[in-house]
Amino acid sequence: xxxxxxxxxxxxxxxxxxxxxxxxxxxxxxxxxxxxxxxxxxxxxxxxxxxxxxxxxxxxxxxxxxxxxxxxxxxxxxxxxxxxxxxxxxxxxxxxxxxxxxxxxxxxxxxxxxxxxxxxxxxxxxxxxxxxxxxxxxxxxxxxxxxxxxxxxxxxxxxxxxxxxxxxxxxxxxxxxxxxxxxxxxxxxxxxxxxxxxxxxxxxxxxxxxxxxxxxxxxxxxxxxxxxxxxxxxxxxxxxxxxxxxxxxxxxxxxxxxxxxxxxxxxxxxxxxxxxxxxx
Length: 280
Ligand SMILES: [Zn+2]
Known about the structure:
11 helices, binds zinc ion, alpha/beta, two-stranded parallel ribbon
């Protein structure tokens, strides 16, 4: 039996040439019909980019980047109910490096700036959903505050190395968010190299791990993607994230060094943000 609606969804992103090749290999002339059965759908990955879970400090103020624990929990529930699988940083790294498969709908939870409050406000909720996550730490500010946000966001304590080690233990992978939390557009090539190398070295020295993931502060990768690509690879990273954008498909040709993420703040509407196709 041929099912029309899902077949269209399964054929999404498949060129006419590919359909014909598959059909020819099966000795079938109506290429549309065979594609429903043999062309797999590429896994869709949603990388959520959070900053702060919970309330601002008493002397602070509320910004879009604060999400209450209740709202965070209901966002994870949204994914859970619709069959999305929570992914570890390692699983995504492996899949992007061509090792291992991902579920059809995969979601990676990330937190930028590595706030200490995540321990109390996010970790219990992640545990409830058995969800791993990744946290991106600007290593110059580890154990201090987000001084780089002065006047824009309330100052909050950034986790120290002991707390970051506890994150690692709890399944939250600690990765690099650079050294001084500066956008790459404002830096010389030597400074960019130092941002990548100093932060990687600090994580290696304090946590004994080789961080292979990077998140550009402000999503700012500088001007030239081709140059940046080789600089990041030379510094020893396999994956780098932008800030903002949408989901991506694993099979599509996109650079693992400029991956989009969904910017998560209070009031985001996941029904609008994630345009779920009937096939995934
Ligand atoms: Zn940041």
